[in-house]
Amino acid sequence: MKALFVKNIGIEGPGTLAPLFERKGVAVETIDAFRGEMVDSVDDYEFITILGGPMGVYEAKKYSFLNDEFRLVEEALRKNKRIVGICLGAQIIAHVLGAKVYKGEMGKEIGWYELYPQNEFEFLYRHKMDVFEWHGDTFELPEGATKLASTPLYPNQAFRLNRAVGLQYHIEVTKDDIKRWIEAYRDEVVSEGLTPEQILGDDDKKWEMLKVYSSVFVEFLFKI
To answer: Which residues form the Glutamine amidotransferase domain (predicted)?
Structure first.
């Protein structure tokens, strides 16, 4: 079995998810879509994950590689592959499924937020979760999809349609990852009036629990 991770920017990678797949005997391949890398077909992959990035799906003219990802997602959906979208990746899946993706009217979610699981995720995770967010865009729920999680600011945080799953939040990141993001996106941090300390938080248990949430999510993927 093989898993494909598609990157939209160098600094946002598979994080904790790649080793979780590898421990289950799944070979992992990562491509840089933003550098023009793309696979000819999804046939060789059982799992496909579209990762995050600072661009929006409505900027495909500026970031032309997004069009390649739209086609990749279309093929994966048509062939009933397990496909996951994280942050921008979730917005890409929603877009391909015909849902509206747009700038959130409630402002950006950057840092730790309480997530409320619903439906399948309510049985999977049981209780509210502290998850890491870094996004300004949001999406409408695709037609026929089941909502899986919400936050008070943005109700559509996760969804599933058949074997496609979108997560607006980040479960793949570590504290060191976010330290690098803070540096890379420092202009955004300043413009939002945030400090690194506010973004990172002061509870290291949250980072450990995020690893647990990732592990549980990967187990979930094997069952859909």
So the answer is: 41-175
